[in-house]
Specification:
CATH topology of the largest domain: TIM Barrel
Shape: elongated
Strand content: 15-25%
Largest sheet: 8 strands, parallel, barrel
Radius of gyration: 25 Å
Number of helices: 17
Distance between the termini: 24 Å
Structural class: alpha/beta
Number of domains: 2
CATH architecture of the largest domain: Alpha-Beta Barrel
Helix content: 25-40%
């Protein structure tokens, strides 16, 4: 059967090549009908570059409607992506998918909410307090959401009038957290405020920025005709907008974020509804392999929330891509590729299913392109299999596998173990005395440890008494702050394209010369 499948995929590739339905890289004949990993191939330089590395444009599609300036995605794993990682990824032009392996749905939604509140042009529905709240309540908000500026309204709701504001300047020197806010807040008559009709209704952030700078403000409250809070604009958000020009943001300057949901429709519905309330931009219906129930979840999501983006995964063959696109293409915005290639995944070894990741990406990308004239564009997400050499030079990012995945047809690359090594991933670093270095824990979602929570759903065995592990727990070398590491990784990807003479990913995918490293 494997031989037959390989012959089918070879015929699919040849048919596409003859009909010129696709723009495909130059794939060496020895790679046709062969299973190969990223480490088995190389990208050959055939051009003389005449441009600088910084001129390379990595803009790409994560989904049909969401464009990223960097083709990097944080995997929905509980040792990889919560709010800190999702914020990091979005600031540098990528995106994060927050895992669902929490004890409750609300814990995941809380993480998504932190991302949406981190950076915004207009902060609508801001957190407010009343004059009867105390300083301790302000510190609790700061700990939960990361900010101190809180408008004070008559009754502590957005339905009553603004009476003042409390900022970090007002509370930072007070040790008594029981002091009422009425005693320390800046009163309404001393506040600089802006009118909703002048700022929000005209979407004029430039004017808001001008008012903030002229008055040396931390926060600019925007009120309506009834003196009720309509929105906030903060100096920190305006500064962040300038500091991170690649950031993945919506029209309101909020960072974009996805959440993972189960492949069980009853569980997924509840999670999706709550995610929509906090403004998530999309969902990944997450399973080790696409179950048909995922198609029903995608359909329900699009029928009820048509603006939300839906990613289905995982797959590893042209046949699976074809079935998704032809049967549920109108409900799907991207397809995630990879069964068993991850550093902490043992699906291929334990149960004998899966595929070499480079071959899987190629086959799936070819089929998506072949179906594009009839069904439209479907971005491919290469999930797993990215190897960074584990050397003493922990700070050095070696992005060769990422460039190869893109050359084979992926629009973006989802990473787990590489990002788990950073400060922004969940979990603490520790010293490994056997290896004499700092490490962090990284676990596959199919590990028995991870399945003690919710991740058994991902493998369709949550009701089974006997659970067969498809993942393991490993240690990854600690690589420090992602704010130092990601710029190096991005520069490395650009340098790979520059060396080949390509200014963007589309050129790479059309003209890359992909050859085997050995016969």
């Amino acid at each position: 059967m494997a031989i037959i499948r390989g012959l089918k995929e070879k015929s699919i590739y040849l048919k596409k090549k003859e009909s010129k339905l696709i723009n495909m890289a130059k794939l060496h004949p020895d790679l046709i009908n062969k299973e190969f990993f990223y480490q088995d191939i190389t990208l050959v330089t055939n051009r003389l570059p005449d441009f600088e590395r910084d001129e390379v444009d990595l803009t790409t599609n994560f989904t049909k409607r969401i464009t990223l300036k960097t083709p990097l995605v944080a995997a929905s794993m509980d040792t990889v992506c919560e709010s800190e990682m999702a914020i990091l990824m979005a600031l540098f032009g990528g995106i994060g998918v927050i895992h669902y392996n929490f004890s409750t749905i609300d814990e995941q939604i809380k993480e998504a909410k932190k991302v949406k509140r981190f950076e915004a042009g207009f902060v609508f529905n801001p957190t407010v307090l009343s004059p009867q709240n105390n300083i301790g309540d302000v510190f609790e908000i700061a700990e939960r959401y990361g900010f101190f500026s809180v408008p004070i309204t008559e009754d502590g709701t957005l339905k009553s009038k603004l009476v003042g504001i409390v900022t970090h300047r007002d509370v930072r020197h007070h040790r008594d957290t029981d002091i009422k806010l009425a005693e320390i807040m800046t009163q309404k008559d001393k506040l600089v405020v802006a009118q909703k009709k002048d700022i929000v209704d005209k979407n004029d952030l430039d004017l808001a920025n001008k008012i903030i700078k002229e008055n040396n403000l931390d926060t600019l409250p925007i009120i309506d005709e009834e003196n009720k809070i309509a929105a906030l604009v903060t100096y920190s958000d305006l500064r962040k907008n300038a500091m991170y020009p690649l950031a993945t943001k919506n029209e309101n300057k909020q960072l974009k974020v996805f959440v993972a949901v189960e492949s069980r429709i009853k569980l997924a519905k509840e999670r999706i509804k709550k995610a929509i309330e906090v403004g998530v931009d999309g969902i990944v219906i997450d399973a080790s392999v696409v179950f048909k129930e995922q198609l029903e979840i995608a359909k329900w999501t699009k029928e009820n929330f048509p603006k939300i983006e839906v990613v289905l995964g995982n797959v590893d063959s042209a046949e699976m891509v074809r079935e998704i696109i032809t049967k549920a293409g109108q409900y799907c915005d991207a397809i995630k590729v990879g069964i068993g290639p991850g550093a902490a995944c043992i699906t291929q070894q334990e149960i004998g299913t899966g595929r070499a990741q480079a071959s899987a990406v190629l086959a799936c990308a070819l089929e998506a392109q072949n179906l594009e004239p009839k069904y439209g564009f479907f971005p491919i997400i290469a999930d797993g299999g990215i190897k960074i050499p584990d050397s003493e030079s922990q700070g050095a990012a070696k992005p060769g596998d990422i460039a190869k995945a893109l050359a084979l047809g992926a629009q973006t690359v989802m990473m787990g173990s590489l990002l788990a090594s950073l400060d922004e991933s969940p979990g603490e670093k520790e010293f490994d005395y056997e290896e004499s270095r700092m490490v962090k824990k990284y676990r596959g979602m199919g590990s028995l440890e991870a399945m003690e929570k919710r991740s058994a759903v991902r493998y369709g065995i949550e009701k089974a008494r006997i659970k067969v592990a498809e993942g393991k727990v490993v240690k990854v070398p600690y690589r420090g702050s992602g704010y130092d590491f990601l710029p190096k990784l991005i520069a490395g990807i650009k340098q790979s394209l520059q060396k080949q003479g390509f200014k963007n990913i589309k050129e790479l995918q059309k003209e890359a010369d992909i050859k085997p490293l050995s016969p």
